[in-house]
Amino acid sequence: MPKRILQGTVVSDTNEKTVVVSVERRFTHPIMKKTVRRSKKYHAHDEANSAKVGDVVQIEECAPISKNKRWTLVNPA
């Protein structure tokens, strides 16, 4: 089964070797038929501490690294 890859914006790079990425998804509301935007934050492993706040990056799911980290930084998108 292929690993999921998501694209989002780095919102925090304060932690060592960790970035927080906000990923936005859009969908049509089933009743109102209006486009709705929902965002979710993911903690991703950044071995080189290369990503900075505001960067658009891609993250890939991986085995658990810590309590919150289940994603790893693939490359700047």
SSE blueprint and pairings:
Elements: E1 5-12, E2 18-28, E3 35-45, E4 56-61, E5 71-76
Parallel strand pairs: 3-5
Antiparallel strand pairs: 1-2, 1-4, 2-3, 4-5
- The CATH homologous superfamily is named Nucleic acid-binding proteins
Q: Residue share in helices?
A: under 10%
Number of strands: 5
Q: Determine the N-to-C terminus distance.
A: 23 Å
If classified by CATH, what would the architecture be?
Beta Barrel
Instruction: Please mark out the parts with pLDDT under 50 across 5 or more consecutive residues, or reply none.
Output: none
* Number of self-contained structural domains: 1
Which outline best applies?
globular
Radius of gyration: 14 Å
Q: Order the strands across the largest sheet as they lie in space.
A: 1-2-3-5-4
Q: What's the CATH class label?
A: Mainly Beta
Average pLDDT reading: 95
| Class inferred from helices and paired strands | mainly beta
The name CATH uses for the topology is OB fold (Dihydrolipoamide Acetyltransferase, E2P)
The proportion of strand residues reads over 45%
Most strands sheet = 5 strands, mixed, barrel
Element string (H = helix, E = strand):
EEEEE
Subunit structure: Part of the 30S ribosomal subunit.
Keywords: Ribonucleoprotein, Ribosomal protein, RNA-binding, rRNA-binding
InterPro entries: NA-bd_OB-fold, Ribosomal_uS17, Ribosomal_uS17_bact/chlr
Family: Belongs to the universal ribosomal protein uS17 family.
